[in-house]
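Dear support,

I submitted the protein below through the web form. The confirmation email said the job was done, but the results page showed an empty box. After a refresh the structure appeared. I'm attaching both so you can tell me whether what I see now is the final result or a partial one.
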Amino acid sequence: MKRNLMAFGIIFLFVGMGFQPAFANNNNISVGKVVQQPLGKTFMKTFGGIDEDYGISVQQTTDGGYIITGCTYSFGAGDKDIWLIKTNSLGDKVWDNTFGGPDDGETSSWVQQTNDGGYIIIGRTDSPGADEWDIWLIKTNSAGSKIWDRTFGGTRCDSGFSVQQTNDGGYIIVGEKGRDEILPYFGSVVWLFKTNSLGFKMWERTFGDILFRDDAGHCVQQTTDGGYIIIGKTESFGAGKSDIWLIKTDEYGRSRNKALSYNMLFQRLLERFPLLERLFYFYRWNVN
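What the results page shows now:
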């Protein structure tokens, strides 16, 4: 009895010290050490100030670190600015930079490291010089300092959601065009456009139904055939109120099912004649 208790005590002691018993086929007890698997380079980090700050896009960089873009209310020139943060492979901040004007309207959606080691950022701005919301394309060097920036937009709210450097060194951007946040009788269309390496627009395409529907492109990638694949959402087509929309184009953004509605032409007509636009708004307001 005492021997059994002693043997049990020894086994209990070994287990408590990080050993576990293993039972062989001959029913003899062997004792082996429990080995904890390494977790590798895992970490959690926070970045921010006393106000609201948030990250939206992150990619690993060629040096093994990470590039982060988001928005900050804590830092920068205005109420809300784009925030670009570079970290090392352990998530420790190496440098950061903010982009924005005096108003409260800068936000970013995507960042990618470019072939020259710098970064390309897509977002939107409503700082002076912009009409409502405009798409904002920013190119930086490897240290996050701005080299150039471009804005794209019309008289209504336009947003850029995704950018990728293309094989020719230019950029492909997708987002939404034409949203009106005050009088939402106009919807939005998918807006795809191509720039050269300096950010100057080469061509553009739109997909969707501008009146009363919300369509948007959320991500774009260049495909192996030189064309582009877009993923987004549509209220103009599909089975439900809002459906996933996958669009494949050629190298010039053309698609067999282009879906450029005549309503887009109607929108451009209204933009050209403000009185007609106000009359249309008045009519839609009273009808609804």
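Response: this is the final, complete result; the empty box was a page-load delay. Residues 2-33 form one domain.
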